[in-house]
Amino acid sequence: MRPSDLLRALLAWALLLGACSDSGGPSGPSGPGVLSVVAGDGVSAPAGTVVPGGPVFELVDEAGEPMVGVFIQLDVLAGDGRLAAYSIQTDSRGRAGAIWVLGRTDGGTQRLRASHGALTAEATAEAVAAAPGSIFQGRLGYTEYRPGRLPLVLTAPHGGYLEPSEIPNRGWGTTGRDRNTLELTLAIRDAVHSRTGAYPHVIISHLHRIKLDPNREINEAAQGDAYAERAWWEFQIFADEAGFLVEEEFGEGLHLDIHGHGHAINRLELGYLLSRTDLAQTDQALSGSTYVNKSSLRALASKAGASLADLVRGPFSLGTLMEQRFVPAVPSTSQPNPGQDDYFTGGYNTVRHGSREGGSISGIQIEHHYPGLRDEAQNREQYAAALADALLAYFPAHFGFELAPMDGGG
């Protein structure tokens, strides 16, 4: 999702969020009550991402009793930040939390004002640069962002282990964890670094899928729980910001969403938002505008002289490059389509962070089989090395530049 799309989404989404952490004291005036900041004040986060854990405001009357179900108005005073909702409603404890996305000005104090009638309180935050080698976490470590220096973004939505009691179990949808995909993602990160001297951007959900599914839209993903919704926004906006940084520095790049499958055939399934029927088309048909516009590789396939069929199953497609490294994959030159076999086409993250909806970051969902690949650390490391080597060939073939930092440094 591009920055303008994000802004429209934030403005359109009226999130009413409660929170439970206590810290600090009253920061509002006395009189008919007190409005104060009780969490998420004075923290730092990468520019363009969500303030972790807050801010959370508390509203009590003159007797110190919580004011329930009333609205608090929010205004950004400094820093060009954005909000999911500019009016938030207090919960049974008189509290309401804001989803505050910091502006992209590195350094300096950003300020957010809350008000209810004559009562006001102010929260501050510091926007910091997303320095490679850093680790940034959302509230309670439910989400994590490791910035990089390469035109490559890795996301791991389904490999988390955390099952906090404050988030109820999801009542519908898929809830099983993709075993060892978190570890696999970090192995890929390390393998890429060992070959390039620089890291890709990495975004991880540490929540078990029974609590949150960041590869679904927010209603299915979080199922109405405020803490899960906050973690969903943190994950998605971390990924949005990583894509923004890649576009800003390189002009284009690649987003890989890392998953695991349990299908009968042990092979990679590369999802381009194209169905089995789509992939059964001839190369000429597949490279037509209908499928180009449907694909998560739309930006790459729209380049002069590019062919979507070549991108997904040609000699320098990711699938073929992996098969050359003894990892079976579909689609590829030898397996141009999955036929009637089970096959994942790609999900929410590939839509949102790929180029089908615009922008120049193309996306691929990679579904990994378990035996011999995800099961043991040695197998994960061997696979990660093969994928890193394949990407070193993929980038110059399709992007026209090496998988390397812009200035040649680490």
Describe the structure.
There is one protein chain. Residues 1-31 have low confidence and may be disordered. Helices cover 29% and strands 22% of the residues. It has 13 helices and 18 strands. Helix 2 (181-196) links the parallel strand 13 and strand 14 (201-205). It has helices at 3-12, 181-196, 218-222, 226-250, 276-279, 283-286, 289-294, 298-301, 308-313, 318-323, 348-353, 370-374, 377-398; strands at 33-39, 43-46, 56-61, 71-78, 82-83, 87-89, 95-97, 100-101, 109-116, 119-128, 136-137, 143-146, 152-156, 201-205, 253-260, 268-271, 329-330, 361-368. It has an 8-stranded mixed sheet with strand order 11-12-14-13-15-18-16-17, with helices on both faces. It has a 5-stranded mixed sheet with strand order 2-10-9-4-6, with no helix packed on it. Helix 2 (181-196) packs across helix 13. By secondary structure, it is α/β, with parallel strands linked by helices.
Largest β-sheet summary: 8 strands, mixed
Q: What general form does the structure show?
A: elongated
**Total strands:** 18
Report strand %: 15-25%
Task: Point out poorly predicted stretches.
Answer: 1-31
Q: Count helical runs.
A: 13
Task: Tell me briefly what this model is.
With 410 residues, the protein is α/β, with parallel strands linked by helices. The chain has helices at residues 3-12, 181-196, 218-222, 226-250, 276-279, 283-286, 289-294, 298-301, 308-313, 318-323, 348-353, 370-374, 377-398; strands at 33-39, 43-46, 56-61, 71-78, 82-83, 87-89, 95-97, 100-101, 109-116, 119-128, 136-137, 143-146, 152-156, 201-205, 253-260, 268-271, 329-330, 361-368. The chain is elongated, with a radius of gyration of 22 Å.
